[in-house]
Amino acid sequence: MSGVLVIAEVRGGALRPVSLELIGAGRMLSEQGAGELSVALIASDAEAHVKELKLAGVDEVLAVPSPLAHFEAHVAQAVLEALIERTSPAVVLAGHTVDSLGFLAAVAARGGHGFASDVTELSWGERGLGAVRSAYGERLVRELDFPGRDTVLLQLRPGAFAAAVAGLGAEKASSERLDLDLEGCARSERIELRDPPASGEDIAKADFVLALGRGVGARERVAELERLAARIGATLAVSGPLVEAGWAPRARKVGQSGKTVAPRVYLALGISGAAQHLAGMSSSRTIIAVNSDPDARIFDVAHYGAVADLFEVAAALERELA
Ligand SMILES: Cc1cc2nc3c(=O)[nH]c(=O)nc-3n(C[C@H](O)[C@H](O)[C@H](O)COP(=O)(O)OP(=O)(O)OC[C@H]3O[C@@H](n4cnc5c(N)ncnc54)[C@H](O)[C@@H]3O)c2cc1C
Fold first, then answer.
1. Which atom of ligand 1 is nearest to the CA of 310?
2. Domain boundaries, given as residue ranges, for the chain
3. pLDDT tens digits, residue range 97-111?
4. Ligand 1: which of 267, 278, 282, 292 to mutate, judged by most atoms within 8 Å of the beta carbon?
5. Best substitution site from 209, 254, 271 to test ligand 1's pocket, by max atoms within 8 Å of Cβ?
6. Which atom of ligand 1 has the smallest separation from the CA of 214?
7. How many CB atoms lie within 10 A of CB 290?
8. What percent of the chain clears pLDDT 70, i.e. is strictly above it?
9. Separation between Cα atoms, residue 89 and residue 7, nearest integer Å
10. Domain boundaries 4-177, corresponding CATH code
């Protein structure tokens, strides 16, 4: 068993950003000695994405045309089982996404493979594959290895791994179209795909995030600080309680049950730093925290911190940057 197999994802005819993160993580394992990096795409238009995937810096692209226009978990399961049989990879990387949640664990259970979900760190060394995931609502960090497993299937947390740079890879990778008999595989029917209500920018793609916590104290203050965010070129995000209070839409929530973000700058105002919040932002490149409590846990992960009233800092930002 050797090599890394990435399961790429498409939605609405475009590669999902997590696909490039999986390739970035796969490339890292490959360079650490895990073997060649292949990427498989299971989609009705799989061949349309071959060039883009090659340019992301993989060794091989496997395009598997699906009989269905949309994702279907049993089709994906059948394809992955066939791919593992055919390519015997040491590691399979998929996203910790709603698509992969539907089939990856089933493939692992049926095949007796190693498995872990929501993985945030990876390595390849003398003992083979190592992975890190948290447990008990991010209170514990678990380091995993997989003794006795020839093939290990992992779901990687979106936003936790640096994306391969699209367009920089050489077009030397090989590609192959695999026609598998998938008619009759599907056991569920998609009735409708509803997009979440539009909430403006996607916080997961933002370069500069201004995140607000319960310390803002009132709904009106969220609106004021949202205007500040717009003036200083930041994207507004929030902690869980602001969503629960109905002060901000769910799409703005950062954390374990919200989105994972990794911006260049994460400016947290009035956020205590609960484990469930840190789960979604601790990979940010520079974290700046403002909190009136010097013992707030957010300061444990912050690169820069101010023990201060957030409204005083907001006023200063307004003066300096807006
Ligand atoms: C299963 C589960 C999933 C969850 N998922 C998420 C999630 O995805 N995202 C998430 O964020 N939470 C999540 N939570 C909730 C999480 O546990 C915390 O309750 C939440 O993150 C706390 O949000 P907060 O920091 O804004 O509020 P608080 O913990 O109340 O902190 C408010 C902070 O503001 C400071 N403050 C107050 N006034 C000021 C001021 N004027 N100036 C400066 N600082 C001030 C206070 O010192 C305090 O530190 C989840 C919880 C559970 C159980």
1. 42
2. 4-177, 203-321
3. 999 999 999 999 999
4. 292
5. 271
6. 26
7. 26
8. 96
9. 12
10. 3.40.50.620
* DSSP three-state, residue 174: strand
Nearest CA to ligand 1 atom 43: 291
Same fold? 4-177, 203-321: yes
Give the integer Cα–Cα distance in Å for 309 and 215. Answer: 9
Q: For ligand 1, which residues put their CB under 6 angstroms from it?
A: 137, 213-215, 239-241, 253-258, 270-272, 274, 276-277, 280, 290-293, 296, 309-311
CA 32 – CA 318 distance, rounded (Å): 47
Nearest in space to 255 (alpha carbons), one of 308, 215, 303, 298: 298
DSSP string covering 91-143? EEEEESSHHHHTTHHHHHHHHT-EEEEEEEEEEEETTEEEEEEEETTTTEEEE
| CA of 244 relative to ligand 1 center, distance in Å | 11
Q: Encoding tokens for residue 172?
A: 């030397």
- CB of 182 within 8 A of CB of 66? yes
> For 232-286, how does the pLDDT look when each residue is reduced to its tens digit (9 = 90+)?
999 999 999 999 999 999 999 999 889 989 999 999 999 999 988 998 999 899 9
Residues 50 and 63: beta-carbon distance below 8 Å: yes
Question: Please, what is the end-to-end C-alpha distance for the chain in angstroms?
Answer: 56
CATH class (in words) of the domain with range 203-321: alpha beta
CA of 268 relative to ligand 1 center, distance in Å: 11
Atom of ligand 1 nearest to the CA of 238: 11
